[in-house]
What does this fold into?
Amino acid sequence: MKPIVNALPTSQTLDAQAFGHVYDLYYSKIFGYAFRRVGDYDIARDVAAETFLKAFLNLKKYRFEGHAISAWLYKIATNEINLFFRNQKYRPDLFGQLSEDMLSERELLTVFEREKNETEHQMANFEAFVEVQRQLKTLDIKYQEVIALKYFEEKSIAEISHILDKPEGTIKSLLSRGLDYLRQKCN
Amino acid sequence: MDEFEKKLQNLKKPHVMTEHQDYLKLPLLNTRKSAALGWWLVALPCFLLACVLMQLVSQGSIRVLDMLFNTLEAFDRTHGGWFSPLVFVLFPLVAAGMNLLSLLNVLYNAERRELTITLKVRFWNLFLILLGFAAAFLIGFHALLIRFH
It folds into this structure.
């Protein structure tokens, strides 16, 4: 995280150019996080695009306060994923604001289709993960997010605390209870 | 740490490589500019339209508005008279057109010789389209009435 943090302006709002670098550095990570949480290529793509659109449109609100910018992006993505889990008809509005011409380009649709097929094919090699993910999705969202951030994204308690904006003690307790529930489900 | 936690920690996780982000980057970085431009194109003529209405209601007793319209009139006289039609009619029309294009999707199926036109229902875009056309129509109509009166 350090080199990325150092590359960004401190104590200032990010400008569009700096945001372009952030996008390049973090898009795959955020997409991966969304995919490991929801297990669906299309939804993960919507969540990632929506996360970066919301971040970009709210750049002025972002103040660099010593936390990694990744925490801010993970926080937006987590909220988007929670919206999806609370409402299965999740339809991100900002994603629709992207040019219709651009989205209907045959080349891009081919890329989407290819990536989706590759992803689904790849998941056959992760049976154990898919099973844990399936059971995790049956838990309350507050447990899902801490477990996913800790074990899927390998974040520390302090990082999860920044992302979810909750004290470290609360995170530890949610993690402990969530693991108990998940253990019961998996057994 | 028990066996279950160890299992979770050593879980083999999928890492998906994607390319689609390269296609989304530019439109994403232009979203804010387009949205801001769309608002300004409608906001400016609407503000001036509100000024016209206020002046009519107050029967010309608001000095600031008098000064504003005198300045606009003087600017138009010295610059060939293009400024007011541009701001009052063309800007709202462009704004309405831009918003309309963002909602329209036209698909032509050559095999079946079918043209499918779909219009997305998005409140703010539809509001701006109506506002843009209404502002251009009302101001244009008002200007024509004055000219031929």
Residues 108 and 114 of chain A are 10 Å apart (CA to CA). Residues 1-7 of chain A have pLDDT under 50 and may be disordered. The radius of gyration of chain A is 17 Å. Chain A has two domains: 1-108, 126-187.
